[in-house]
Amino acid sequence: MRIPIIAGNWKMHKTAAESAAFVKELASALAPYANVERVVCPTFVALAGVADALRGTGVMVGAQNVSAAESGAYTSQIAVGMLEGLAEYVIIGHSEVRQYLGETDAMINAKAKLLLAHGLKPIIACGESLEINQAGGTDAHVRGQIVAAFEGIAAAALPKVVVAYEPIWAIGTGLNASPEFAQQVIGSVIRGTLTSLYNAEAAAQVRIQYGGSVKPGNMAEYMSQPDIDGALVGGASLAVADFTTLVSIAAEVKGA
Ligand code: PGA
Question: Annotated catalytic sites, by residue?
Fold first, then answer.
C-alpha cells in the first residue's frame, strides 16, 4: 500500500519565529497519525528553526524550491546541498513558481534529478490553467508535464518521487476540482503516463497528491479515490486544527 502523504505548502506565510512556534503545537496534534506522512513546507528562512523543532517528532520538512544548478554564482538562489539535513522533501514545479519565476519543464526535470542524487525527495507539481481546462486540453497538458519532468529518472527512484496534481484554477480560489475529475487526471493521465514510461509496477509506487482548495469539508471525497494518495495543501495548512483534521481524515479513509 502507498503511504498517504499530506504536505502543507505555507507559501510566503509565517515568519521564522511563527513557524517554529506553530510546528511545536502541530507536532503534538499530529502525533497520533504516524502512519500518514506529514510534511510542512515553510519559507526558506524558517527551515532551520522548523527542522530543529520537529526533530524526533516524525513530522517532516519540505522546502518550496531549489536551484537547478548544483552550485555557483546564482545570487538569491538556494543550492540542493544547503537543504540537506534541513528538509526531506522539496516542492518543484508549483504553478506559482512556473508563472512568477519562469520555472520551465526542463528546469523541473533538472531539479528532480539533482534532488534525487542528493537523497532528497521531489514533490513535482503539475496542472493546467483554466483556459486549457475549458478548451479540453487538460490531459495532453498534464501528460506533457509528466513526460518532461521524469525524463532520465530511473524506475528505481520512483518510490522517492511524489507528484501533486494541482489544477491552477483550483489553487487558492475555493473552486476545487470534483473528486471524479481529479481521480481521472491522477489515475488515467498521470499514473497512466508513468505506466507507459516505466511499467505498471513502478507507476504504482509513485504517490500522487491532489492540491487546490483542499479543506476539511472536501478531504474525505478526495481520499476516497483509489489513485489519490494525499494532498498538497495551501490555505488549510496554516491552522493547526485544519491541518490535523486533514491528516486524521486521510488516516481514516485510507485505513492508515
Ligand atoms: P490552496 O493551495 O490549498 O490554498 O488552494 C494549494 C497549493 O498551492 O499548493
Answer: 94, 166
